[in-house]
Write the structure tokens for this entry.
Amino acid sequence: MTTRSVRHADLLAHRAEFPLLARSVYLNTCSLGARSERSRRRLDAYLHDWDTLGARAWYRRWLGELDALREDFGAVIGVPGSEIALAPNVSAALAVIASALHPLHRGDPATAELLGAAGIAAGRGPRPKVITTALDFPTIGHQWLAREALGVELVVLPSPDGIGVPLEAFSEAVDERTALVATGHVYFTTGARVDLGPLADVCHERGALLLVDAYQATGIVPTDVVADGVDVYVSGTLKWLFGGSGTAFAWVRPALHAALAPTTTGWFSSARQFAFAVDELAYAPDGRRYELGTPSMPSAAIARGGMDLVREIGVDRMGERTGDLGDLVIGLAEAAGLQVRSPRDAAARGGIVPIAVADPKPVVDALADEGIIVDFRPGIVRCSPAFYNTEDEVRLLIERVDHLVPAADRAVSPG
Ligand SMILES: Cc1ncc(COP(=O)(O)O)c(C=O)c1O
């Protein structure tokens, strides 16, 4: 493939903000984004507020910081911060959403009516089915497998080419018994991007909802959840938002709130949180409806540092540089006789480029011994250059993989 030059070299000025980049050739952002000094400063400020203000810091600083974080998340997906629900991780966010779907699974007429008012013609019958794919992150499937005893039926669509799942497969599977399609925006092993608009249309035509796990997309794939017709969006800060663990978020299309009452909940979801009324459950009218309890403020502080950087640089530029570096990986890998298992077109990819290696663990370990950090999944060495990586780092990776992987180990393994 012809690789164009890697754009936005000016962003390399930010390398100095990331201590990890001086210590290793770090090409594993899809697993854990590097931490910037902005996050350390935010964390220091949090500790200072704790030491000087004690509990008063909640009202004077931290509740405001949480609002600012909701704004940060809203800004990268095209919605106001008030529509965002904070969560400690994507699994917890999913558990809250899943807990709100049972009336739809059962065919509750009042819920169908409320969904109808939101433009989802769910009809009167039960909708026990949730559809996901073999390429989705396990926590997606687990939410609904755990509810099988409650009548939920999980359908897992296979990937014919081991890279993506065609729209036609969803189209054939979604029917009048389907409550939800729950799938990724970018698949976590192949980097394939899902075109959300057409998938939302398929769901809505049949009265089903679309939930998107965008963990591998947020921060590098320009996103407008409203324009794309997404119903529920979940993501977090571990990867392409450079904000570490402990902070995730959900967005639910506001028109759906009336139909979705979470049965997994907590006092942060309350309309009158500081009334402390133990006998009253009135959900907040905004995104907080889907929150649980006290967020981890150290995590939130670290996350705000990452979001500061993402918003300063912009998702467009982050995504373009990431895509160009991915193209470089593919071009060099193929020239070296390695096989890549992701879409070749950057517009159809996120930031992940998997290189087929029959036994990847020893290769990833040997690379780590040389200071080159990538990771592995079955049958692949998974690399994920980010905006802060250099072309030389990518060249070094491919040179070393080429050296370490014998020809017999380079075949693409099925799916
Ligand atoms: C696509 C995707 N979804 C979800 C997760 C993680 O979910 P959680 O925040 O529950 O750990 C990851 C990675 O860790 C992921 O790559």
